[in-house]
Amino acid sequence: MNEQYVLHIDGQLFRAQRKLLMEIANLAHHKRSYKPTPGDEGLLEGLMGLTDTIADQAHDRHGVDCLLNNAAGGTRCK
Questions:
Q1: Are 12 and 41 in contact (CB under 8 A)?
Q2: Taking a C-beta distance cutoff of 8 angstroms, is the pair 67, 77 a contact?
Q3: Helix %, strand %, coil % of the chain (to 5)
Q4: What distance in Å separates the CA atoms of residue 51 and residue 70, rounded to the nearest whole number?
Q5: Please, how many CA atoms are within 13 Å of residue 34, restricted to the half-sphere of its CB?
Q6: Pairing with 71, which of 15, 52, 62, 63 sits 20 to 30 Å away (CA)?
Q7: Rounded Cα distance, 8 and 53, in Å
Q8: Cα 42 versus chain centre, distance
Q9: Pure H helices in 1-78
Q10: What is the pLDDT of residues 35-78, one digit of tens each?
Q11: pLDDT confidence band for 11 (50 / 70 / 90)
């Protein structure tokens, strides 16, 4: 069965989340510390929720859920 994802994404919010991730990645690349600003926590929580939604819908087909829940590396994902 080839099921489609059902994601409800707010474009403006998603762009803000991606911008924050790019800023954090740039800081990490330059070995600089990340100092959160007001609103960052909500953006990051939204990205975690999006990742969880993708995992919930795709774990049987792509193994995303297994990868997210297997941080310790004890179980091999298919």
A1: no
A2: yes
A3: 60, 0, 40
A4: 15
A5: 14
A6: 15
A7: 10
A8: 13
A9: 11-29, 40-62, 64-69
A10: 999 999 999 999 998 888 877 776 556 566 666 666 555 566 65
A11: confident
- Tokens representing residue 62 in the block: 């792509």
Neighbours of 34 (CB within 10 A): 13
Structure tokens at 54: 């993708």
Burial class (CB in 10 A: 0-12, 13-18, 19+), 17: buried
- The two three-digit tokens of residue 16, written as one number: 């803000």
Rg (CA), the chain: 15
What are φ and ψ of residue 6, in 5° steps? -120, 95
**What CA–CA distance (Å, rounded) separates 78 from 50?**
22
Do residues 9 and 60 make contact, with C-beta atoms less than 8 angstroms apart? no
